[in-house]
Amino acid sequence: MRSRRLLLAAALAATLGVTACSSDPGPDADPDNPVTIDVTVSAAAEIYSIPWLVAQQQGLFEKHGVIVENIVPGKGGSATMRTLLDGNIPIGEVSYPSIVQADAGGSELRIVGGGTQGPYPMNFYALASNTSIQSIDDVRRWAYTRPNSASDALTRLLPSLAGADAGRIERVSTGGIGEGLALLEAGSVDIALIPSIVAEQRPEDFRLIVSSPDYLQRFLQSTITTTKDYAASNPGVVRAINAGYTEAVESIRTDPEAAARIYAAYTGFDVPAALAVVERASSVGTWGGGFDPAAIESAQAGVEASGSDRDPDFCTLFDPDFLPAGAATEIPADCA
Questions:
Q1: Are 91 and 238 in contact (CB under 8 A)?
Q2: Where does the SsuA/THI5-like domain lie (predicted)?
Q3: What is the pLDDT along the chain (336 residues), one digit of tens a residue?
Q4: Who's near 39: CB < 8 A, 6+ residues apart?
Q5: Which CATH code of 3.40.190.10, 3.30.830.10, 3.30.1330.60, 1.10.10.10 fits the domain covering 35-117+219-322?
């Protein structure tokens, strides 16, 4: 396999519908002469990058005619969207809320694949030394990453789902996961997202206060997205990306240790901690190659909880034409 450069910011920085009608990748994705692209993934040191890394390192994209050279870390929310639109990067995994806010009608963007469809690892921790924070009812300052991110949506949904008084909670935008951890350690917020692999390696330092999977089974955090024009002019590349991603999800399920070694090499953390993260994420169906209507509906509820007036046109925004054979295509809309 060809050598590839990896870009890494700091480590802190299922309901099935009808099956997709897949075709060959297309003339723009030739396994004998692969096209080379970069992709962007929100919080690439977190679990979102794992299927991308596995597909990249195991040649699953390349076998379909695409070499993913760089996985460019996004900061989450609208920042990753800007990376996709302004950074000459044709495709990536972008937070669902940011897609709806940017282009609810699908005039420019297309959701063309699956992605991170469960709420793991959206867990919010207090410092273990802060004994005043024992439950969600004690939280007064709650950190999230950026506006229009999955963590933004969840910090709006979770208090009501947990029966807490949302009016007593000040939500604090930190700019990123690493920045949130810094504010937590400085005592400026009560709880914040902690990277899952950090929580595995430093359990004595943090206390889990709110675990999103306790309240939501499905939640579309981020999804494979491109522009309408790129999908139209490079359909084979888009299909190849989806095929490789979907095969990577299955590879992770069947051989989590291999995925953990890849993830550990990328992040610099140890393999046992990486394996714990990979196994936990895979066991709850965190990643998927097709569409998941329950995950979409939960994510849309988070968008609406923000007071957004964006009404997504699901039938235009979600395009099943690029999904691999057997992938679920159902969305929460009647597109007949």
A1: yes
A2: 48-259
A3: 443 333 333 333 322 233 344 444 556 899 999 999 999 998 878 899 999 999 999 999 999 999 999 998 876 666 677 777 675 789 999 999 999 998 989 989 999 999 999 999 999 999 999 999 999 999 999 999 988 888 999 999 999 999 999 999 999 999 988 899 999 999 999 999 998 888 988 999 999 999 999 999 999 999 999 999 999 999 999 999 999 999 999 999 999 999 999 999 999 989 999 999 999 999 999 999 999 999 999 999 999 988 888 899 999 999 999 999 999 999 999 997
A4: 52, 68, 70, 71, 72, 89, 90, 91, 92, 93, 241
A5: 3.40.190.10
Class of domain 123-214: alpha beta
pTM of the model: 0.87
Listed in order, the ranges of the chain carrying CATH 3.40.190.10 are 35-117+219-322, 123-214
Residue at 264: amino acid letter: A
